[in-house]
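cache lookup: miss for this entity combination. No prior model stored, computing from scratch. Input as submitted by user K.M.:
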Amino acid sequence: MVFQNPDVLFSVKAQALKPSAIEEIHKLLEVPGLRSLAGAWPDPSVFPAREISEITSKLLAENDSPALQYCSTRGYLELRQTLADLAGQKDGIDCSADQILVTSGSVQGLDLACRIFIDPGDVVLVGLPSYFGGTGTITSNGGLNVGIPVDDDGIQVGLIEEQLFALENEKKKVKAVYVISNFQNPTGVTLSLTRRKKLLELAAKHRFMIFEDDSYGELRFEGQHLPSLMALDNTGWVVHFRSTSKTFSPGMRVAWCTGPGDVISKMELAKQFNDIATNTLSQLVLLELIRTGAFSKGIDQNKAYYRSKRDLTLGLIEEHFPQEVSWTSPSGGFFTFITLPEGVSADELLIDALKHKIAFVSGSSFFVDGSGMNSFRLSYSQASPEDIKEAIPSLGELIKTRLNN
Amino acid sequence: MVFQNPDVLFSVKAQALKPSAIEEIHKLLEVPGLRSLAGAWPDPSVFPAREISEITSKLLAENDSPALQYCSTRGYLELRQTLADLAGQKDGIDCSADQILVTSGSVQGLDLACRIFIDPGDVVLVGLPSYFGGTGTITSNGGLNVGIPVDDDGIQVGLIEEQLFALENEKKKVKAVYVISNFQNPTGVTLSLTRRKKLLELAAKHRFMIFEDDSYGELRFEGQHLPSLMALDNTGWVVHFRSTSKTFSPGMRVAWCTGPGDVISKMELAKQFNDIATNTLSQLVLLELIRTGAFSKGIDQNKAYYRSKRDLTLGLIEEHFPQEVSWTSPSGGFFTFITLPEGVSADELLIDALKHKIAFVSGSSFFVDGSGMNSFRLSYSQASPEDIKEAIPSLGELIKTRLNN
């Protein structure tokens, strides 16, 4: 029998699937001795390993523990009730347990939302720049990402209506806006309250969904908490994605989303045919962490830890980067975003940097229109303070050299 | 602002998403005092809770344990190497770690395969009857299920070619055959060696994929192990889905699939935009269970446990069911499938049975062509021996009453 290649059978979507920048970043991280400001994973030193271990032992010692059996697709009921309460207390979101779907990471939530809303060719408006995992999930569902510029107050909501009319003229249907409302990946900027309200008005007026990715919202270092779009919404056009990957453990793969009951029910059906249910043990451990107060205490520790690294990073940038360069000043989260003068290539700077065993992510990965060549993301989440202290002054020197050439 | 319903924005696929029989089964199970032969979950009494607890404590006590951090999308390398070795030793599958993708349950594997192979309207041939989670996953990806009858030797491979020509005449493209090769859900039958070989020939000749769902293969109670389609394949048209839900813990959500390198790479990309990665702790616990031999020992215990329940079930059926009824005699797995005389409704029998607090799943859920009204599935996996002893004689009486009316 002759070997034949099953590639001939690939679907249209499969042909469009391209490796994301994530893969490239991981390859970068394999260089020994690298001082990396590329990766955006949380720092394992702040994971509550001891608490997780203790709770797991307790759960698995119980007779008839549900921890190892299938969970319902919607998620463990007591966890959903607890998350609904928490959403009310912390963010003023008025929702019931039935409006919550527990997911295997927040990207799964976004993927399920895309499955139930996006037909091939439908448009999703996204930030320029925006997290490539989010835009990649949209593409992998046949959606078309169209960019709206981001400034220090987040995605420029004032430009949306014009874009809607332009797309309508092209007979394109806008189904959603994908927005990372707090400490956005990659810029670290936060959507202002005024823009939140305006975006909700536009959604109700023009009938599009808001996919609110709120993976970083709990990691606010200073300033006032802004209510989520979900909390402000009274129209039912928002699905709100939360993550525990930054505040509990990404390896445990437990997240949740909140939305209108009909939408959550439909997403639950889609999940049933995607992975049946989220890991039960992870759900029970998270529930117990919340109940004991360890979850909330952990978030406080996380904030202090990442704030100090943010301060270190921004201080060193201020000191060592040339004045032609600008950067964002995040009030929370993991990232600052650097803009080099027009025409200076971040990709070329990265080549220089890697020779000095320093890594970051070039900005172009985050721009769905292929722009942003003169920008890059620095993440202080995983890098040790020592690495940050070594890397940023050197990077400043490399930028200066490149500007002087 | 007026409340508007986001349902208007649902995608074509979302509109096709219907609750599966799984949900109905769970509702049945909520009746107190029910003796249920409906559910097909494994019995928690055979989960290795103590071993999982001990391994977790050990893993989480390590400094720099990767257990709580993100894992790579492909899956933990040492686990993949171990699974590749195991596939070689146990089943004669010649594959490398690169041909393995770790998934969050085997349904996720099938879903990812559908994503990369199925365009809307593409046909997948499935057994009549076949597992509704599998056929539902195909539908949720826009695929069209077309049934091929199943007999005691599994799906009737001899009828496939004729169906292919008929579908070709209708301008329909057959992309895959979905087959549960061992102790099929819902019938418990196993695809014969002759049919396995013939199916592989047909796949290579007509260029379609074989999605081989092998969730029950390890639970063989007697008779000779048959090599999987994957083991017999030398053409590269098979993706083989394995589960640990029956032999380790469904709540831990760890499974894997094996296939040609190109296919696995594409599925990995699709997974990156679905849930990023599988639970890391679950992967490390499974790896350690395999290494210590506890996994293999657990499978032996499982086999003995489910075999005794199978024997009890079939013995009682033989004794109490009337002669007009026929049933399958599985050599492994969780199910026997009952066929009532033509025209006798299993749905009506179920109504009688529920009045006596006995539950099963009507066969029609498993037939994509809407047939099978006179059949039902009995599962002995979750029911206690006491419940089996109570339920089957009563069910026999109910069938006799219905036949005499």
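stored under new cache key. Chain B has a mean pLDDT of 94.
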